[in-house]
Amino acid sequence: MIECAMAFMTKHEIILKYVSTIIATSIAILNIFLVRSVFKFNRKMGHSKLSIKTSLVNQKLASNRKLPLDFTYNLDYLLFINQIKGLPVIDYQERTNMVKNFLTVNLDNKGELPSTNIQVTLILKAYRTRLREETNKLDSIITNQQMKRRLPMSPILERKFLFQKKIIIKIPYIGAEENKKFVIAPIIEQFRETELILVKIKANGHTYFKRRFFQSFFRPVIINHHLHPFLENPPSDSSDLKKFIGAENPDQELSLSFKEKIRKRRFSDWLLSLFAEWRR
Q: What's the Rg (C-alpha) of the chain?
């Protein structure tokens, strides 16, 4: 009986010692993994602290030498897009005389070390107005709403996806406490809305930010959302309203003949715009 108990205790001790060895080894491996992760994180954050923000820069300020702007990625052909239904009416004389604002992206390195091999991926989206009412019915709709003392919002509430353009900004080097300013597109109120979406930031061999798949559909990281002034202060005059929604513009496709054509939209693009409208 005593021998059986001693044998049981011996087996129990062996199992316990074996399990203890496994636990100790696992803890050691986990500690190594945690130390490695912390080291990589500190190394990643210690190289640079990149921040990205956007701004609208007036044309007069843009010509100031004290404000150096990089026009490498400027979509300047957007100044000359053709007038189509749903886009605000801007005639040639207005395009020539209007003071432009430049949508810019500012990259700041707030770290103590320089940042190298920087790559920022963005998507610029443009929208026009979705016209559900026929043009010849707009006057009566606006008149009825004015009589009811309501702003004529129904024809301009909904937006329609127009096009998107991917922009990849590549910067070999940004020193500590330095910044770079890049012009993305000229804005003269030629669109109903524009959105600038952040897709990816890479630097120093690391990916600081990367858009997840479902963010494309539900929660894109919009770093700039520009609205036409009429959306914030809707016009009460029917002629101004029709000019804003481009009711009398030709019902045709957008043409970007100056530098590139818009690619045919795939089914995934259609799904993306559908989800974008649903989120609104």
A: 29
